[in-house]
Amino acid sequence: MMKRVGYLEKGREPARDLNGKNWDIIELHIGPMRLAIRMAELRGALAGRICARVERLERSWGLRLTGICGLARASGSGRALNIEMNDGNAFTVSLDMVRAVTARKERYASIAEIPSFTPCLFSP
Question: Which residue range is the domain that position 58 belongs to?
Answer without folding.
Answer: 3-113
